[in-house]
């Protein structure tokens, strides 16, 4: 496509809302993903530490 002005480019032949909305949603998802992964990792590590600590106390009680 050839656009003669910036407004035609952003209008995308009448599909601008869909096109730019899709780009926006993709950008939001890509920005949130590392944050959510880091939170998940922190939660998993904490859970594993608690589990390891509980197992340590259980072993000490049985000796």
From TrEMBL:
GO terms for cellular component: plasma membrane. The keyword Transmembrane applies. Pfam families: CcmD. Belongs to the CcmD/CycX/HelD family. Required for the export of heme to the periplasm for the biogenesis of c-type cytochromes. It is a single-pass membrane protein. One of its GO terms (biological process) is cytochrome complex assembly. The chain crosses the membrane at residues 17-38. InterPro entries: Haem_export_protD_CcmD, Heme_exporter_D. This is Heme exporter protein D. It comes from Ramlibacter lithotrophicus. Keywords: Cell inner membrane, Cell membrane, Cytochrome c-type biogenesis, Membrane, Transmembrane, Transmembrane helix, Transport. Its main location: membrane. It is found in: Cell inner membrane.
């Amino acid at each position: 496509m050839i656009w003669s002005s910036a407004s035609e480019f952003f209008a995308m032949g009448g599909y601008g809302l869909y096109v730019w909305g899709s780009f926006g949603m993709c950008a939001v998802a890509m920005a949130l993903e590392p944050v959510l992964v880091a939170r998940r990792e922190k939660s998993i590590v904490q859970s594993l530490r608690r589990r390891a600590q509980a197992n340590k106390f259980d072993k000490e009680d049985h000796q």
